[in-house]
Amino acid sequence: MTQPILLLDTYSVLFRAQYALPPMNTSAGEPTSALYGFFSVFLKLLREHRPRGVAFALDAPAQTFRHARYEAYKATRDAAPEQLRPQLGRLDEILQALELPAFRVPGYEADDLLATLAARLEERGDFVLVVSGDRDLLQLASERTHVHFIGRRGAPAETYDPVAVRKRFGVEPRLLPDYVALVGDTSDNLPGVPGIGPRTAAALISSFGGTRELLLGLDRVSARTRRALEENRDQLVLNAELARLRTDVPLGTRELHGPLTGGVLDRLAEIFTALEFRSLEPRLEALKSVLATDAAARNTP
């Protein structure tokens, strides 16, 4: 992929880091394991992809339109572990210090912000790399947008383009919300249609082209499947609505991404020193050299 715009699902990456690493603290006792993991991933992405710009998306501390539509939405999710809570606040401070765009819009999830950012950047002709540990983002995969999925507890990351999504789920990325509507999503507390597993769901969605078309063509499915769909019609329609990411979030007039200037990297170095991330400091210095070489190459006639 040509040098992309890097979009980070900020809290998702932070949560993944929290559970992938053992507890870490500064000499003053401040917990830092999630922050260390987050910036370790960040540096790796910068080194490997040399992005032209970066932006962060964060969840607002309020319920979203999905909670208004479905009271049980994400009701089964565990609260953030005690050690992570102060790191959430610290990360917000760090992002402000870096002065890179960080988007947070009440009423919407970070996923919706990422979907909106990706859509707007694609319209401008940019290439996009979305980074998340949330499979909901895989529906954004396209020729210009790839999704770098971070696995649980240190599992290898995988980058999805449309081919990889089709291979993994058996449907096109844009149809993943319809697929999820049938099989359900335990992380979002969306119940699937009883008796319909991943293979059947993929076959139905690929054949009909979506849940709406499927419900209009129930006379073409088996009696058993038709009965299950009819009995769960309302939940199926709701699931598809909730699983589909919005691309119309009002982002304001600010720039959609910011460049990785020397000033940004210098501020990051100061943050690493304050948090005692000594092992990340040489990685950052190496990254500065790489980016300086890139800049010199671009300026060479």
Question: What class do helices, strands and sheet pairing give?
Answer: alpha/beta
| Main sheet specs | 6 strands, mixed
Shape: globular
CATH architecture of the largest domain: 3-Layer(aba) Sandwich
Instruction: Fill in the CATH topology of the largest domain.
Output: Rossmann fold
| Element string (H = helix, E = strand) | EHHEHHEHEEEHHHHHHHH
Share in β-strands: 5-15%
Number of domains: 2
How many helices does DSSP assign?
Answer: 13
Low-confidence stretches: none
Helix content: 40-55%
For this entry, give a set of tags:
301 residues, alpha/beta, Rossmann fold, DNA polymerase, domain 1, 2 domains, six-stranded mixed beta sheet, 13 helices, 49% helix, globular
What does this structure look like?
- By secondary structure, this protein is of the alpha/beta class.
- It folds into two domains: 5-165 and 247-298, 3-Layer(aba) Sandwich (Rossmann fold), CATH 3.40.50; 173-243, DNA polymerase, domain 1, CATH 1.10.150.
- 49% of the residues lie in helices and 8% in strands.
- The chain contains 13 helices and six strands.
- It has helices at residues 10-20, 33-49, 65-69, 85-98, 110-123, 162-169, 176-183, 198-208, 211-216, 223-231, 233-243, 262-274, 281-299, and strands at residues 5-9, 53-57, 102-103, 128-132, 145-149, 158-160.
- Strands 3-2-1-4-5-6 form a six-stranded mixed β-sheet.
- Strand 5 and strand 6 (158-160) form a beta hairpin.
- Helix 7 packs across helix 11 (233-243).
- The radius of gyration is 21 Å and the shape is globular.
- The two termini are 24 Å apart.
- The model has no long low-confidence stretch (mean pLDDT 93).
